[in-house]
């Protein structure tokens, strides 16, 4: 992409998100969401192909429907109550419509079909933005809403964890797997959002750090499928150790960072006397753990099939990870010792 155009896109994405998360008025929040939607379109379509054009049009239509629902519901609420403030949205129907529209924008199950297609059809940078940054503004709005439909919220959260796990089981493309991983992690955030919003936000930050590390390593090694992961030891030997650990962290295994948000959320659900939902969430997360383990196994313990006489390219130019990847990888693996301080901060 042209550097000048890329600069404009990044500035627009940042501006749109900042407008949304700092506004207390629904019109300004809606404006920020629209800026975000239009800013990402050039990144999705910059390499012209019929598939990219089709997915970009689908993405635009889905986002337009969601923002129309938000605008319709906020006008309905303002018509009855005279309030445009986000935290003053108290009517049942507008609250439900806005919540569903925001979930559609984020790609939560069962409204997730467009999201996996969009990530798979995009490059790694665009897929990372769709999985993390584009969800920041809608999630912030959702955390500000005091919904009266906690049962619906919990159901959608559990469904997202389940579908995120089931959908990734039979995938071979790394971006498709990470898109289902994103749906499952969002399910955990939605599950706790009505009880401790700060804990949901902390989970999002930790997930973003881990996801950034994973997408960045896949981008550097150009590993678009699981099959290519078997050759990663030749191109980037350091990834042979780091990538499986980050995959296990995404799966939520102790003593890695990814265990912390799941531990906090399950503990809080038990405190709220929601033991059945906590049990279902923990069991459903095992499905996601399976495909993380499969990717880790392919990376660290498998070599691609070769003929006996094949010469291994030992002298291929190795890629050296940049400093930002070293920082994000460290945060993805070693935050768990800080868990007492993080739990105290999120539960205040």
Please, how many domains? 2
Overall pLDDT, averaged? Answer: 86
**N-to-C SSE string, H for helix and E for strand:** HHHHHHHHHHHHHHHHH
| Helix and strand composition category | mainly alpha
What is the molecular shape?
globular
Strand content: under 5%
Radius of gyration: 21 Å
Measured distance between first and last alpha carbons:
45 Å
Q: How would a crystallographer describe the biggest sheet?
A: none
The number of distinct β-strands equals 0
Number of discrete helical segments: 17
Fraction of residues in helix: over 70%
Low-confidence stretches: none
Keywords: Electron transport, Membrane, Mitochondrion, Mitochondrion inner membrane, NAD, Respiratory chain, Translocase, Transmembrane, Transmembrane helix, Transport, Ubiquinone
Domain NADH:quinone oxidoreductase/Mrp antiporter transmembrane: 23-287
GO molecular function, one term: NADH dehydrogenase (ubiquinone) activity
EC number: 7.1.1.2
Short descriptors:
348 residues; 75% helix; 17 helices; 0% strand; mainly alpha
């Amino acid at each position: 992409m042209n550097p000048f155009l890329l600069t404009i896109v990044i500035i627009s994405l940042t501006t749109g998100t900042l407008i949304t998360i700092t506004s207390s008025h629904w019109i300004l929040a809606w404006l920020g969401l629209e800026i975000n939607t239009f800013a990402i379109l050039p990144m999705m379509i910059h390499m012209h192909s019929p598939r990219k054009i089709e997915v970009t049009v689908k993405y635009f239509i889905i986002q337009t429907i969601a923002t129309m629902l938000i605008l319709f519901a906020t006008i309905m609420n303002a018509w009855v109550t005279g309030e445009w403030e986000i935290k003053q949205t108290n009517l049942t129907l507008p609250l439900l419509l806005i919540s569903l529209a925001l979930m559609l924008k984020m790609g939560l199950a069962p409204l997730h079909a467009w999201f996996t297609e969009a990530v798979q059809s995009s490059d790694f940078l665009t897929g990372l933005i769709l999985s993390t940054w584009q969800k920041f503004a809608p999630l912030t709005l959702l955390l500000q809403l005091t919904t009266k439909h906690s049962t619906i919220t919990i159901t959608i959260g559990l469904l997202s964890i389940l579908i995120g796990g089931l959908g990734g089981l039979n995938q071979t493309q790394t971006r498709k797997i990470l898109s289902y991983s994103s749906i499952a992690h969002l399910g955990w955030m939605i599950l706790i959002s009505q009880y401790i919003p700060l804990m949901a936000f902390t989970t999002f930050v930790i997930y973003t750090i881990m996801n950034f590390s994973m997408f960045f390593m896949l981008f550097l090694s150009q590993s678009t499928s699981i099959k290519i992961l078997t050759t990663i030891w030749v191109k980037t030997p350091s990834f042979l150790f780091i990538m499986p650990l980050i995959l296990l962290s995404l799966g939520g295994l102790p003593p890695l960072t990814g265990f912390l948000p799941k531990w906090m959320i399950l503990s809080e659900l038990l405190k709220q006397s929601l033991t059945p939902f906590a049990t279902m969430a923990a069991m459903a997360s095992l499905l996601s753990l399976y495909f993380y383990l499969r990717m880790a196994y392919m990376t660290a313990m498998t070599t691609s099939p070769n003929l006996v006489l094949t010469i291994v390219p030992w002298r291929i130019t190795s890629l050296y990870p940049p400093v930002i990847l070293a920082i994000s990888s460290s945060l993805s693996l070693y935050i768990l010792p800080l868990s007492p301080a993080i739990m105290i901060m999120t539960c205040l």
